[in-house]
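Review box. Two proteins, two foldings.
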Amino acid sequence: MRAIMQVAVPHIETSGKSGLLAAAFLAVVKRECATCVLVMPVLRQIEQLVGPLGGTLEVHVQDDVTFAAGFAHACDDTALATSFRYDIDTVPTLIRLKDGREDARTVGWRRSEWQAITGIPALGEDLPPHRPGCGSKTMDPGMPARLKVKYGNTGLASRRIEVAPLSDAVETCHERGWSDGLPVVPPTEERVLEMLDGTARAPHEVVGLVPPNLAACTVEKVAINAVMAGCRPEYMPVALTAVETALMPAFGLHGVLATTNACTPVVMVNGPIARTIGMNAKGNVFGQGNRANAAIGRTLQLVVRNVGGGRPGEIDRSVFGSPAKYSFCFAEDEDDPRWESYAVSLGYSPKASTVTVFPGDGITQIIDHISRQPEDLCRSYAGCIRAIYGTGHIIGVQAFLAIAREHAIVFYDAGWSKARVREELLGLLKIPVREVVSGRAGLTGLTAEEKSDPDNLVPKFKNGTFNIIRAGGYAGKYSAIIPSIGGRGSIEPVTREIR
């Protein structure tokens, strides 16, 4: 987030200047800081020396003004107005003023700097040469955002909605149509500012145009919806990239939103950031219980609803819909190096963090506790995968096959790579022309040569995509299919590196 206040601090001279003792000084301290207690005698020495020469020293106390008892200018800063104005992050801070503006500052206790800024050569000779300061109360949890709202220009451009004191803010969000049907976290200015602290990107930066209304979505708008979805600030880079990725033309978000199919944007995260923010890639990977998975996926859904105007019963024409439309987000399991991750297979470095967005309907679980050879397990998979949208449907079919650990071990032990598994499956997923359904699902997509012989074999994924990933728990011989519509050049998986 952009800093609210920038203070120009010149280089502190190490030699005294004439007239410095007549300068105005401002100190910010707090009683509970040991270093502040240490420097209080030094502050009294400064006051005694600058006062007769026309200088002044204001001592602003963040917690207990009696700490500065006896000073001519002891100031109560428990409301932190002065600390906010001067952007204090550490106490003690000593500031030299010139014509009412900051001329120089020093933070903590460093004898040489205090002597230079005051022009008093023998200042604090009986103290240790250096002691670190303590955190300013402006840095207490939640305080930076609170103070920006109270004293500063937050920089937020979104319209403010006033909620009556006795009204329920959560119910207000429901009444205004901002919810997906579940309660949302009210996006107060403080919460939005804290969310924006999770990214260095400017709040006014436009992420993209969100269909169906093609409304401009800024970083600030993503932050508002991330608050409502229950995100923590550290999720923001992933949430932002998920929105950006979904808005890439190849993904075809408008088509995913407007189709009568049950599909929805699915978010998969690869790379170190997934582990850093605690995303789940293992047991119950597609289920409830993990905050990062749930909140990041929900953020994208709320952006589509609240920014783009994509609401069920309006542009969202899905016949059945899916629980995945609340949130479908997970991390790929990258702990076993024997198979490269999906992102690495696309050419990304293992050290890169990426977001992949692809359309998905939900999951179809594959249970095979019997197969011990990779060829047998692939035949089990092929029977289930062929059934996507009907066994004779070959046009506009996509799928991600998520292989859990016990099934993966079958392939590991046989030395099969993911590419080898995919090759085997695509060979098994050939359908005789006589079994291909007519119409958009198949025959109209075949060439004259293919249709010339009913025994000709055509691929299930004739113009779609088929991918394999690792995910899921470590107990039980299961895998899962995430099927969907789409094909190359329209509604296809897209990947973007997280900035």
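Next protein.
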Amino acid sequence: MKKLLRTVDSFGPTILRLVLGGVILMHGLQKTMGLFGGSGFEGTMKMFTENMKIPYGLAMAAIVTESVGSACLILGFLTRIWALGMVILMGIAVYKVHFANGFFMNWMGNQKGEGYEYHILVIGMALALLALGGGKASLDAGMSGSSRREPKSDKIKA
């Protein structure tokens, strides 16, 4: 368990998990509480299971990952597990919904839906957290009892 929780002694992953967790939490609150113009839990489950034909368990996993998982990322609790969840969630979203709309977001309103550029950014951030852990000021660092320092780079010699 300590290997799972171990993290680099750096603020880089801290920034990544706070930003990623904060952004995804807003989407989770749309799906769970109906905030920020969202459909709430019942509306989201209906859209996922009836309209998109996603099995109930997978729809629930998506909602939990976006709500509970993002809050856990903000706290730095089980960072690698929730980061992996984000990679899986976004990969499925790209495959199932967004790939058909092309790469770009629908800024001009001339596509049928949103592209997958946002999802690629989330996947990249989550992969970095998988590699590095939660960073400084994470519950993972406190629970593991240690953090590994980033390797110091050699000075460039001219």
